[in-house]
Design goal:
The complex is a heterodimer of chains A (484) and B (351). Chain A is α+β, with helices and mostly antiparallel strands and 484 residues long. Chain A is 17% helix and 31% strand. In chain A, the strands form 5 sheets. In chain A, strands 7, 8, 9, 11, 12, 13, 15 and 16 form an 8-stranded antiparallel β-sheet that branches. Chain A has a 6-stranded mixed β-sheet with strand order 2-3-1-4-5-6, sandwiched between helices. Chain A is globular, with a radius of gyration of 25 Å. Chain A starts with 17 loop residues before the first strand and ends in a 14-residue tail after the last strand. Chain B is 31% helix and 13% strand. In chain B, helix 3 crosses helix 4 and helix 8 packs antiparallel against helix 9. Chain B is globular, with a radius of gyration of 21 Å. Chain B starts with 22 loop residues before the first helix and ends with a helix. Classes of the chains: A alpha+beta (484), B alpha/beta (351). At the A-B interface, helix 2, helix 3, strand 2, strand 3 and helix 4 of A face helix 1, helix 3, helix 4, helix 8 and helix 9 of B.
C-alpha cells in the first residue's frame, strides 16, 4: 500500500490545515471497523506500539488463515482490532458506544466519530451525525442496499448532514465487478432521490452531496489510494473525497445570517472585588468593560454591524457592534464557529440565554420567538415519550420547561412514511408539539442546523431524552422539503 | 442553573451603566493592543501570523473556540467548578484557554492538584509560579497524607498514579465542586476515546461507560443530582500534536523537563527513569547521564523520559509529528499494567 503522500510531518503547519469531522455508519458485518482501521493505518495514525499489539492479537487469533497475506506480501492483520475500546466490547466482540478517532494528512486534521451500527443505530448515528461534516455509510457489495441503509440515509437527510459518502465495501468479494457496483450505485441514487439527498438543482433541499465509492477495506482499495483493480471506476478514493470536501461551516457561514447565543457577560469590574481583573492588566483600563461572550453558531459579524438583541418576552432591541474581542485581540470580523466576546454600542441589559442576531437590510429575517414548538424528535432514551409529559428543552444557552401536548406521528425509516402514534420509544423518530414555559427564537432546522437544534432533558434525573429538530408551524408552508 | 453571578465575570442583574461616549469603545480597543494586555502572547509574531478576518479557520482555531465554548458553558451552568492542574502540558494548555475565555476578567474558579508526593520538584515549582501569576486559588489533595493516615497503602510497584483517585474524590467532596475540568484527550487511550466532553460521575465518582448521555451538536447537558458531579474535558478533541502546535503558536510556558536536558537516568521496563529521591536504581540497574525529555509528566515513580535532542518547542513539534510510539506507550508504566488499565482507573473515579 502506497502512502507516500502522507508524510510524517503532515499537518506540521498549523495555519494551513483545517478541521473536518466525519462519522461512519454501518454494522460490523459491513466491515466498518476494518474500514476505520484501514483509514487510520494507511494515514499513519497508528503508531508502532499500537500496531505491535494488534499484530500479536491477530496472530494469536489466527486471523486470515495460513496464507494470510495482503497484496504486496505483507502479513495481514485484523484492522478491526485497532478500534477496539472497552473491556466489555472486546469480550463481546461488539462496539457499544461512539468512539472518537484522530488522524491527519498534510491537508487536514480529521475527527472521526465511529458509530456502532447494530445496537441502537439511531441513537449512535444521530449523535455522530450531529457534529459531522460528512458521514460514510457502508454497504456490503454482496448484499447491496438493505433496509438498514435506507434507515441510515433517512437519518442523515433528517439531520442535514452536508455530505454523504456511500462506501460499497468488500468489492474484492464480488471480483471487482463493475456491474455489481453500478447496480448498487443506481439503487443508492434512487433512495437519495426519494429522500432529497444528492446534488440536484431541482431539489430545493440541495443539502448534500452523495458519493458512491467501491472499496475493499481489508485490502485498502480506494480507501487512501485509487485502486488499480477498479479501473472502470475513475473516481477519487475515499480519503481524497474527505480531504477536499468543504466543511459545513465553510459551506454555510457566509450564507447564513449571524446568530450568537449569549453564554455569559464579561464584566470584570462588576459587583465584585477589584482583583477580578486578569493578572497584568490595568484595572482602570477596564473599569467600564462589558462584553457578551459566546460562540457564533451561524454566519459572521463585522465591526459596525447592526444587530438585534433577542430576549424572550421582549421586543428585539437593535444596536451596533463596537468591538469583537478575542482574549485581548480585536477582530474586524468573526465567523462561525469562533468563540468571541462582543461589545455593543448601547448598554442594554443582556444576559445568558439571550440571542444576538443580524439586523438591518443585510441581516435577513429576525427569528420570531414562540412558545409553540413543532419538532421532529429522535428519541434516545429507554424511557418512552408520553403525551402530557413535562420535560426540559435546552436551546442555545437557554433551558426552559416544556409540556408535550401531542405526538403527531412516527417515521417509518424504511418507507419514509409517517405512521400515527401517541408515544415514542428508544430509537424512534417522530413528530411532536410542545408548549414552552417561555418563548424561544426558534428557527427551522432545515435552514438552520444550529439554531434549529435542541435537547429534550428529563427534569428528574437530568438525562438527555431526545435530539430535537425544529419544524415549521403547520400552516407555514414555506418549506415543503421538510414535510417528511 | 445560571448561577453565574457567583463568578466575577458576570453580573446580569446590574443596572445598565450610563451610556458612554462614542470614543470609549475605540479607546479600549487601542489599549487592548498593548503587549501587556495579552500576557500569554508575549511574542508579537503570533498576532502577525494570524489573519484577523478568518474566512477559513485553521484546525487549531476551531479546536480553541470549541474548548473556550465548553469552559464558558460549564462556568455558566455550574456553581462550583474547579480545574485539575498538575503542571503537565495538557492542564497548562487548558488553563491558558480558560484565561482566554474570560479575558479581561480573571479565571473564575480555583485549580485543584492531586499531589502524589512523587512529583518532579520543577513541576511543583512551575505549578506554584503559574498560580501566583494568574492570581488563582490552589487546592491540593495529598496522596502522602492519605498514606500517612492509613487510608491508602503504598503499592508494591511503588507507583502512586492510581492512588490519586481517593484524594481527588475527597477534595471534590470537601470543596463541593460540582464540575471538574480535566485535560484528558480522547486520542490518549482507548477508554478515553469513548469519554464524553461532559461526563457524569455518580456519588462514588464512578464512570459508567455503558450508560453515557448522548452528546449532540454543541449543546452540553450538565444536569446532575445532588452528590453527582461532572468531569468536563475541553480539549477532548485535541491530539498530542495539536497541543504542541498550540503551545508553539501561543508561546506558552512549560516546565523545563518537557525539553531536552541532561539527566541521570537508568533503564527500567524499556523506559529511561530519572534518578530521584523516590526513584532509585536497583543493584543491577546502571545509572548513566543522557540527553532526554519528558513527553508526559506524571508521578516520578512511573513516568519515563525519552531520549531526545528537542530543546525548543519547534523541535518538539517536529519530533512529535514524526513519532512512531504513542505518548503513553512510551512513557507511562501505569498504563502498561493491563490492556484496560485506564478504563479500570476511570471507572473508579480517576480523571
Amino acid at each position: 500500500m502506497s502512502t507516500e503522500t502522507f508524510l510524517p510531518d503532515a499537518g506540521l503547519d498549523a495555519l494551513s490545515t483545517t478541521l473536518f469531522r466525519f462519522a461512519t455508519a454501518g454494522s460490523v458485518d459491513d466491515g466498518k471497523s476494518t474500514l476505520v482501521g484501514r483509514l487510520l493505518h494507511d494515514s499513519k495514525a497508528i503508531l508502532a506500539d499500537q500496531l505491535d499489539a494488534v499484530t500479536r492479537t491477530s496472530a494469536d487469533r489466527g486471523f486470515g488463515g495460513s496464507g494470510a497475506t495482503a497484496p504486496g506480501g505483507t502479513q495481514r492483520i485484523d484492522l478491526a482490532l485497532l478500534t477496539d475500546g472497552l473491556r466489555a466490547e472486546r469480550e463481546q466482540g461488539i462496539t457499544i458506544d461512539v468512539a472518537y478517532r484522530y488522524f491527519a494528512t498534510d491537508r487536514r486534521s480529521f475527527i472521526l466519530a465511529d458509530c456502532p451500527g447494530h445496537v441502537q443505530y439511531t441513537k449512535n448515528t444521530v449523535t455522530g451525525a450531529s457534529t459531522a461534516d460528512a458521514v460514510v455509510v457502508l454497504i456490503d457489495a454482496r448484499k447491496g442496499v438493505l433496509e438498514q441503509t435506507r434507515r441510515h440515509l433517512s437519518v442523515l437527510q433528517l439531520l442535514r448532514v452536508a455530505h454523504v459518502i456511500v462506501a460499497v465495501n468488500k468489492i474484492d468479494l464480488v471480483d471487482f465487478s463493475e456491474a455489481v457496483f453500478r447496480g448498487i450505485e443506481a439503487d443508492v441514487q434512487k433512495v437519495g432521490r426519494e429522500l432529497g439527498l444528492g446534488r440536484d438543482d431541482s431539489n430545493t433541499g440541495g443539502i448534500a452531496d452523495l458519493f458512491v465509492i467501491p472499496v475493499s477495506a481489508l485490502d485498502g482499495d480506494n480507501v487512501v489510494d485509487r485502486s488499480e483493480r477498479t479501473p472502470w471506476f475513475g473516481g477519487p478514493a475515499l480519503l481524497e473525497v474527505l480531504e477536499t470536501l468543504p466543511a459545513a461551516d465553510e459551506l454555510e457561514s457566509h450564507l447564513e445570517s449571524f446568530r450568537f447565543p449569549v453564554q455569559l457577560v464579561i464584566r470584570p469590574q462588576g459587583a465584585l472585588a477589584a482583583d477580578a481583573i486578569a493578572g497584568g492588566l490595568d484595572p482602570e483600563a477596564y473599569r467600564d468593560y462589558r462584553a457578551y461572550a459566546g460562540q457564533i453558531t451561524e454566519g459572521s459579524v463585522k465591526l459596525g454591524d447592526q444587530v438585534s438583541v433577542l430576549t424572550p418576552g421582549q421586543a428585539p432591541r437593535t444596536t451596533t457592534v463596537t468591538g469583537i474581542d478575542f482574549a485581548g485581540r480585536e477582530l474586524a470580523e468573526a465567523v462561525a464557529p469562533q468563540s468571541v466576546a462582543l461589545r455593543l454600542a448601547d448598554e442594554f441589559d443582556v444576559a445568558r440565554g439571550d440571542t444576538i442576531a443580524a439586523a438591518g437590510a443585510s441581516g435577513g429575517k429576525i427569528p420570531e420567538s414562540t412558545a409553540d414548538l413543532y419538532a421532529a424528535l429522535c428519541w434516545l432514551s429507554p424511557k418512552p415519550l408520553r403525551e402530557g409529559a413535562k420535560v426540559l428543552v435546552k436551546h442555545g444557552t437557554r433551558t426552559v420547561q416544556a409540556l408535550v401536548r401531542n405526538v403527531t406521528g412516527k417515521l417509518d425509516l424504511a418507507s419514509f412514511q409517517l405512521e400515527p402514534t401517541t408515544t415514542l420509544e428508544l430509537n424512534d423518530i417522530g413528530h411532536a408539539q410542545l408548549r414552552l414555559s417561555a418563548p424561544l427564537p426558534l428557527e427551522n432546522y432545515a435552514h438552520h442546523r444550529r439554531t434549529g437544534a435542541f435537547l429534550v432533558i428529563d427534569p428528574l434525573d437530568g438525562n438527555t431524552l431526545a435530539a430535537g429538530l425544529v419544524n415549521d408551524h403547520p400552516g407555514d408552508h414555506e418549506d415543503e422539503r421538510y414535510s417528511i | 442553573m445560571s448561577n453565574v453571578e457567583t463568578f466575577v465575570a458576570v453580573d446580569p442583574d446590574a443596572a445598565p451603566a450610563p451610556s458612554r461616549d462614542g470614543d470609549a469603545a475605540s479607546s479600549i480597543a487601542s489599549r487592548s493592543d498593548r503587549p501587556e494586555a495579552t500576557p500569554w502572547a508575549a511574542s508579537g509574531s503570533t498576532a502577525e501570523a494570524r489573519p484577523s478576518s478568518p474566512a477559513r479557520l485553521s484546525s487549531l482555531d476551531t479546536l480553541e473556540s470549541e474548548a473556550i465554548h465548553i469552559i464558558r458553558e460549564v462556568v455558566a451552568e455550574f456553581e462550583r467548578p474547579a480545574l485539575l492542574f498538575s503542571g503537565g502540558k495538557d492542564s497548562v494548555v487548558m488553563l491558558h484557554l480558560a484565561t482566554k475565555a474570560f479575558w479581561p476578567g480573571k479565571v473564575p474558579f480555583p485549580v485543584l492538584h492531586v499531589d502524589t508526593g512523587h512529583n518532579f520538584p520543577e513541576v511543583i515549582e512551575f505549578r506554584d509560579r503559574t498560580v501566583e501569576r494568574l492570581g488563582l486559588r490552589l487546592v491540593v489533595g495529598s496522596v502522602q497524607e492519605f498514606i500517612d493516615s492509613g487510608e491508602l497503602a503504598e503499592r508494591a510497584d511503588g507507583t502512586r498514579n492510581p492512588l490519586q483517585t481517593v484524594p481527588l474524590l475527597d477534595a471534590i467532596q470537601r470543596n463541593k465542586f460540582d464540575a471538574v475540568f480535566g485535560g484528558g484527550r480522547r486520542d490518549e487511550d482507548k477508554a478515553r476515546a469513548k469519554e464524553r466532553i461532559l461526563s457524569l460521575r455518580d456519588e462514588f465518582g464512578q464512570w459508567d461507560p455503558r450508560n453515557q448521555r448522548p452528546e449532540l451538536w454543541n449543546l452540553y447537558n450538565g444536569r446532575h443530582t445532588v452528590g453527582q458531579h461532572v468531569r468536563a474535558f475541553p480539549i477532548s478533541n485535541w491530539t498530542e500534536l495539536d497541543v504542541w502546535r498550540y503551545i508553539e503558536r501561543e508561546n506558552i510556558d512549560l516546565p523545563g523537563l518537557y525539553y531536552a536536558h541532561r539527566r541521570e537516568v537508568f533503564a527500567r521496563d524499556g523506559m529511561w527513569r530519572a534518578v530521584g529521591e523516590v526513584s532509585q536504581p536497583r543493584d543491577h540497574e546502571q545509572v548513566i547521564t543522557k540527553t532526554v525529555r519528558y513527553r508526559t509528566v506524571g508521578d516520578m515513580s512511573c513516568t519515563g523520559a525519552v531520549e531526545s535532542a528537542a530543546a525548543t518547542v519547534r523541535d518538539v513539534v517536529i519530533e512529535v509529528a514524526a513519532s512512531t510510539i504513542t505518548e503513553r506507550g512510551a512513557t507511562r508504566a501505569d498504563d502498561r499494567i493491563s490492556e484496560a488499565a485506564m478504563e479500570d482507573r476511570k471507572k473508579d473515579g480517576y480523571f
